[in-house]
Amino acid sequence: MVSGLAPASASPLGIAAPARHRLIELTTQALLLLGATWVAYGRQQGGSLDLTYLVYIPLIWIAVRGGFVRVTSALLAANILAVSLVGATVRGSALTLQLGLVSLTLSGLMLGSLITQRRDDAAQSRHDALHDPLTGLANRTLLLDRLTHAAHRAQRHPTARLAVLFLDLDRFKTVNDTVGHDAGDRLLIEVAHQLRSQVRPGDAVARLGGDEFAILLEETTEVTDAIEVAQRLLDTLGRPYTIAEHEVLIGASIGIAVAESGHHEPAELLRNADIAMQRAKDQGRNRYQMFSDNLHHQAVNAMELRTALHNAVIHQLLGVVYQPIYQLPDRELVGIEALARWRDPERGEIPPTTFIPVAEHAGLIRPLGRHVLTRACHDFVRWQADARVPRRLYVNVSSRQLQDSQFAEEVSDILKESGLTANQLSLEILENVWSEGDVTALATLGQLTAAGIHTVINDFGTGFSSLAAVRGFTVAGIKIDRSLITHLVGEVGTVAIVEVILAMANSLGLEVTAEGVETAEQLEVLQALGCTRAQGNYLHPPVPASHLPDA
Hints:
This protein is α/β, with parallel strands linked by helices. Helices cover about 50% and strands about 15% of the residues.
């Protein structure tokens, strides 16, 4: 656990303890120097050859504790006092010899001190260049150097293995946003301590930047050794941490890459562990994933897909189609949902379930979402002019878009530009936006609802399926996830879940839409349960703007 720093103690006079101790030391040094000089030179003319060595004691102490400037000042003061005590007959006296010896000795000490300081500064510079300044762990440069030497050693031992664990903290951004960056730094320091405590003294632990860490395990005899370490780390980092009087839960996603007989370049091994870590995150976080050649192949494909998607987003090559939402049982058109579509020249039609997660990870979801929202708003206004107007336009919004503090203003600008009124727009948002409590995202939601824009919980039934997290926020409705609708026929448990969702939403006055209706049997069950809105391919598939059905 990390606790706050205690305030420095102070004396009754209000002087802090370190300053008080320094004052006492300076006073003691001055009195000792005055006393030694008086004993050596004040009691007999010219000083005593034996007693003048007493001046060494305070001067050496001052040199060691105070450095060059302070000891020079002290030596000058001792010379002036000695001359004043001996009088005019200085030349040829023991004073000249003794102060000369003292000066020469101190000059040697200070020269040695300067050389030592320069050497220490160089050593500190080398240390700083190879270590993380916050946690004191090795940085990427030192880790790669350790990896290189470990790989060379492993090549000389056919049975030797190297393992690299690439670790990324889960929900660390939430900690920074909620309790502040200082608390986040203290959490990183505590995590670094926990990582060191879970590995052997000879293993290397490094911070690569942000909330990313890596661990080099040398001389592992079995792959299971690395897995055991990863599991220990998950158990340790999954416990609550107390930071700035707040209890926080983070967890971690860990990728494991193992090199047999050192046959891997250091950078390649680290990259492989990173690829495996990304897969662990994609699979739900708070878990580990072993690297494999198949994962590498998938990573290369994903990189190529990201590049193609980037070009498509930048050049606005993605299309938008629209799926009607109907009122039941008369099937009146009450809404239309805008859906992004992508046809790549080389890969053909790529489903949203493939390219939307890629856009999220590649930082493309914001320009993609802006393109879809802009296009949909303009199409909706054109439908108004043609008198083919559903009541409301529904557009999906990512949590990444909501984390942009300028998003509400961006939506407002699009509405003004297109001529669409705020109360005609509904934004579909995943439940985790509320449950994760991102400060910026929640503030953006508040701005959107204050502007008159409706918000709808999308894919309800796949997460916590609780409306408790949205208390205090204006929510217009929920959309039941298609995974529940798919298993609605013949599964009593799923029917019961949908029935509970409908009852809960109706009691709160929320509109409920069942999405993904594919068969007449599913629609029949939904109507029997009292569901009043539905969309899906059975009712009407997504179509281009020019093929919108009449209201």
